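Retro notes, structure queue

What went well: the backlog is down to a handful. What didn't: a couple of records were mislabeled last round, so from now on we paste the full input next to the output in the thread. Example, using Minor histocompatibility antigen H13 from Geodia barretti:
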Amino acid sequence: MESEVNETAGVENTSNVTGRDAATPEGIAITYGSLFLMALLPLFFGSLRSVGYHTGLKTRGEEAGDRIGMRDAAMFPVYASGGLFGLYLFFKFLPKEYVNTILSALFLLLGISALTRALSSIVNPFIPDSWKAWFTQYSLHLTVTTPGKESEESRLKFTTIDVILAVGSALLGLGHLLSNHWLSNNVFGLAFCLNAIEMISLDSVGVGALLLGGLFLYDIFWVGSLSEQCLVFGTDVMVTVAKSFEAPIKLMFPMDILEKGLGANNFGMLGLGDIVIPGLLIALLCRFDKSHHPKGIKVYFYSGFLAYVLGLGTTIAVMHTFKAAQPALLYLVPSCLGLPLFMALIRGDISDMFKYRDYPEKKEAKESKED
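Corresponding output:
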């Protein structure tokens, strides 16, 4: 998850700021629409897929490996700020090309894994069962031993088709490392978002509210507010990192695509954190719907999804009006928290919503209480 690196939506469309030709109204409209659609797809499908993923884990008596508890949510903005400012210093005082090469290679290793998993989940349902018998089944057993704790075992199962998809993902990753093309960047970015929203579990709605609230302040502090006249907080740190970092931590779409085609280079950007962070809460609401409405009524999922649409739409509108990067969570957090909680309040589900847990409390939390 790259939310700590780039959680801003930014647009470059004036020649006096960027040194490039100003974008046409048509190009800007296509960019906004494309970024909007790319944000909605992983959020929608990742949330729906999270129901099956976490249900499967609980059925097997397992827990999600990536869980965010109250302490994690409280400290996340601090860790994010440290990571962001560290990257800013790297880009300020070290050769940018070397920093990008090292970080891009690291993120692409993670991206290859994410893309392989995403493609596998898309391809496997379309393979007839009669064909699957021809594919070799592999099982990799891993044992993690931590001093002072019991050893943990995990099993990774995959097939020949997964190996083929991994090779294809690796070739795409190598191509991206050499070309840094925006299309391959978006493929890996979408895979990151889809997997993160599906697999990461918030311990509760209260944890989600704390996480979003903390990052709401984080985004305002590092990006700023509506316009130059309103900038009480805000620095060039976030935007500098977003523009300098060439790894797939943001979605990009060129505003000059009509003029230059696939070789366009004047981009609008949307940080992956602006998709994943609200997406984690919306996915939790989707699982709450499954638990609270077994007949399949997704009241809170759809209210959360609608809230995200309204929040992102507001971000883009303000961004276009002021011609400046905006802290997207400034608009996404109030809408994504406000509308579902308002719905729960008027439907009388607010208590059940805050009591809902995917999994029991973490063992560490219980032990600390006993001590």
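Agreed that this is the format going forward. Reviewer comment attached to the example: The first strand starts at residue 9 and ends at 11.
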